[in-house]
Amino acid sequence: MAVTSPTKHSAEWVFSHFENNSGWGNDAVAWSIGLLSSCYVLIGYDGATHLSEEMNNAEMGVPRAMVGCLLVNGPLGFAFLLIILFFMGDISAALATPTGFPIIEIFLHMTGSVAAATTMTAMITVMACLSTVPLLTAAARIMWAFARDGGLPFAERIASVDKRRQIPTVSIVVVSFLLMLLSLINIGSTTAFNAILSLAVVSLQASYLLPIILLIWRRLFRPDTLRWGPWRLGKAGLPINIIAVIYLMYTCIFLLFPPYQPITPVNMNYAPVVLGGALVFGCIYWPLRVSKRYVGPLTDAEILEGTIH
User: Second label for 226, Cα 20 to 30 Å away, from 3, 28, 65, 172?
Assistant: First the structure.
């Protein structure tokens, strides 16, 4: 792409040029709202933790997988981003593309070939589809674990394991069905689909935030209650935890903002409404049903003794 592109931006343009087409008068706000894409890329690095019960030596394997995926994919993604920025051409032309996908217009500009642009777009599409496989695996494993511990409706059925294949077939089918339903939302309403994406990112950010805050509290006030595993960051751990909390709180706030001004029913970010509804539902459903049968994750001994059938 770098060879075939007819234009090239300067390093000054790539690293210092800022273009605000969002309608927000404050560039810092516009930039902060634009963090959604970068946050979405990072939501999968905890996938290994959800499969830790299936791993040998998970104490070392899980952190290696989490850190390794960032060390490998981070530089590759950054290199791809630099190539796009240096050779993408006019931003306005990319945004005004009749395809509705600026990246397709950028590929066409950089290669000058419809076939090449189509091939590159197809490669990204295939990678996006393949990336859903580990996400599906992690989501199904989480659903099965919650059902096994009695934390979901129809827990006994969802927690069942196929005796021949030794996999949680029901949870896989349920998660797959829900994913297909969510994908159909984009056909009816792009606004609703974008709200689901924002909600997914914000919810995951919040799920990372709470345990880190509790860990900081125990580091500072109850260090004697912590049991460290073989993988530890030592003195760097606390500063990293604090930076993570600041970042997560910052992104959780701005990811709930509408992406464009002026705000209309079409471009409104409805993630706060959906998130509020989910919280209200949880506050009602927990005391009425779940708290009576869910007492937290079960130990291996309880599972082996037949607590869950």
Answer: 65
